[in-house]
Amino acid sequence: MSTPRIVNGIARYEHGSRVPGWDEAADLTKDPAGVPDPAVVEVPADLRLEIESYMARYPDSRSAAIPALKAAQQRYGWCSPEAIEQAACVMRLTPGYLAAVAGFYDQLETRPVGRRPVYVCTNISCSLRGADALLAALQDELGDAPDVNLRGFECLGACDIAPMVSVEGVYVGPVDADEIPELARQIRAGDEPLPAKQLINRPSQDPDASAA
Ligand code: FES
To answer: Is 12 within a domain?
Structure first.
């Protein structure tokens, strides 16, 4: 992955985007790997069962590629070559097929990362409301936390609470600058992040829904 340059105060990758993208070419000197042989590849029984349960949900079992990779990532911390080979073995697909899926989806990790994802949305609404400074401040606070996978992310679909952060799937926002140290402390400790700012705790604008 290339290193981003700072352009007008904003980190940008070689292709101009603020996210790394998928810019690694395939190694054409290697023979393509075939479907892994179940007699050779050992797959933990519970992981196999989980992947098979996803495959059973779809008319075309390849549709289970994303949950299968997510399950493998859960076990190994990222979509490592071993994780992909095991998932491919169960699904009777080539590792290349699953590697392509893993490389496309941002929440599937193709490099070792901290196990706890913390995403700061840096898309337009959040950016206009200070997301870049928020991400930089959280990087300062959490840069040495090895179990945290802190990164900028494209729109997380909660633009009305910009600038916002997803802490292991819990949406919080709008995050004010003076709340960042407390948020960082909560992330480190594994505490609930900014409970008063969690999207899930916001009352619905529909009076009937709020009364229910
Ligand atoms: S722009 Fe940040 S959630 Fe949409």
So the answer is: no
